[in-house]
């Protein structure tokens, strides 16, 4: 691990995007970026004890936390519900840090009451046209990809009609 990154984490300082990517590229080359992924998707295939040891060693070494939105949040969804094409396209791009994901749930009018979200997605052929506003998007300024919650059925009760896209 680069000593300058270790020192910034030890001192509790914010990391720049480049710092996150430098460390995640090192982990990626080692095959350890996605500690919770199975081997069939490029992960180390670790069990809970191995993952815990890895987390403990990273903490002891003042290693940055891996940005979670791609590796830990959207990737398991793509593995479980994605088509083979989606898996083959998105998962390698997460593993080699080509894509930086962020999470678009909260809105100015929908935080704790997320069911109050109003960002709309309207189908247009093979695509959805999304209109709305998201807020509080952690590290969104560095991201090129977002997974978000959108309203696809405005007539359903507010807790329904919401899609993950
Ligand atoms: C550091 C940080 C990072 C974040 N990153 C992301 C992100 O990456 N992506 C994303 O989508 N969102 C993100 N969020 C937003 C987070 O999910 C919202 O802040 C959270 O859901 C609360 O919503 P709010 O801030 O609108 O507060 P509000 O929902 O307006 O709540 C304000 C206060 O009212 C209380 N309250 C709300 N409803 C009720 C109720 N029914 N009864 C009693 N009390 C109530 C709450 O507990 C709170 O104390 C982030 C937030 C923070 C602070």
Automatic annotation (TrEMBL):
<feature type="domain" description="Acyl-CoA dehydrogenase/oxidase N-terminal">
    <location>
        <begin position="25"/>
        <end position="96"/>
    </location>
</feature>
<dbReference type="InterPro" id="IPR009100">
    <property type="entry name" value="AcylCoA_DH/oxidase_NM_dom_sf"/>
</dbReference>
<dbReference type="Pfam" id="PF02770">
    <property type="entry name" value="Acyl-CoA_dh_M"/>
</dbReference>
<feature type="domain" description="Acyl-CoA oxidase/dehydrogenase middle">
    <location>
        <begin position="102"/>
        <end position="164"/>
    </location>
</feature>
<dbReference type="GO" id="GO:0016627">
    <property type="term" value="F:oxidoreductase activity, acting on the CH-CH group of donors"/>
</dbReference>
<protein>
    <recommendedName>
        <fullName>Acyl-CoA dehydrogenase/oxidase N-terminal domain-containing protein</fullName>
    </recommendedName>
</protein>
<dbReference type="GO" id="GO:0005886">
    <property type="term" value="C:plasma membrane"/>
</dbReference>
<dbReference type="InterPro" id="IPR046373">
    <property type="entry name" value="Acyl-CoA_Oxase/DH_mid-dom_sf"/>
</dbReference>
<dbReference type="Pfam" id="PF02771">
    <property type="entry name" value="Acyl-CoA_dh_N"/>
</dbReference>
<dbReference type="GO" id="GO:0050660">
    <property type="term" value="F:flavin adenine dinucleotide binding"/>
</dbReference>
<dbReference type="InterPro" id="IPR052161">
    <property type="entry name" value="Mycobact_Acyl-CoA_DH"/>
</dbReference>
<keyword id="KW-0560">Oxidoreductase</keyword>
<dbReference type="InterPro" id="IPR037069">
    <property type="entry name" value="AcylCoA_DH/ox_N_sf"/>
</dbReference>
<dbReference type="InterPro" id="IPR006091">
    <property type="entry name" value="Acyl-CoA_Oxase/DH_mid-dom"/>
</dbReference>
<dbReference type="InterPro" id="IPR013786">
    <property type="entry name" value="AcylCoA_DH/ox_N"/>
</dbReference>
